[in-house]
Amino acid sequence: MAAPLTRGIHHLGFTVANLALAQAFFIDALNFKLLGENPDYPSSFVTDGVTMITLWGGEAGALPFDRRRQIGLHHAAFAIENLEALSALYSKLQDWPGVEIEGAISSPSVGSQARHFLLRMPGGPRIEFFVSAPTQTVGSLDES
């Protein structure tokens, strides 16, 4: 079998309704670092040291993505180190301005020991925060 031609995701690009609010969410809520900005094509670039996110300012009146009626990115999932960190993040984001949490911390599928929660970030797409089962390392694709 030939080796994959890609080496993982370099960055994800999110179009957001309010660039400043989205940037503040990643930097202040998730502790990402600001890498740069481009005011001519409103955008900013943030990272957690593993993944880079490009935030693009959308035009006024842009419609939000509807995951059930449109084809496109359903959500982006970020790995969290352990259940304690996931619970702390959930608590922190419950009252974060512009965040819409979609439910409690739960199992992503029947029989899975993994835990997750989803939210809609301020002015932007859906994000999932995910903890693998206790016997797995972060980044494992086996969720059972």
Low-confidence stretches: 140-144
Molecular shape: globular
At the first level of CATH, the class is Alpha Beta
Total number of helical segments? 2
Distance between the termini: 26 Å
* Biggest β-sheet description: 4 strands, mixed
- Total number of strands: 8
The CATH architecture assignment turns out to be Roll
Q: How is the quaternary structure best described?
A: single chain
Q: What strand line-up does the widest sheet have?
A: 1-4-3-2
Helix content: 10-25%
Overall mean pLDDT: 89
SSE sequence, one letter per element: EHEEEEHEEE
SSE order and pairing:
Blueprint: E1 11-16, H1 19-29, E2 33-38, E3 43-47, E4 52-57, E5 76-79, H2 83-93, E6 100-101, E7 115-120, E8 126-131
Parallel strand pairs: 1-4, 5-8
Antiparallel strand pairs: 2-3, 3-4, 6-7, 7-8
Give a verbal description of the structure.
The chain is 15% helix and 28% strand. It is of the alpha/beta class. It has one domain (11-59, 75-131): 2,3-Dihydroxybiphenyl 1,2-Dioxygenase, domain 1 (Roll), CATH 3.10.180. A four-stranded mixed sheet has the order 1-4-3-2, with helices on one face. Strands 5-8-7-6 form a four-stranded mixed sheet, with helices on one face. A hairpin with a 5-residue loop joins strand 7 and strand 8. It starts with 10 loop residues before the first strand and ends in a 13-residue tail after the last strand.
Give a concise summary.
With 144 residues, the chain is an alpha/beta fold.
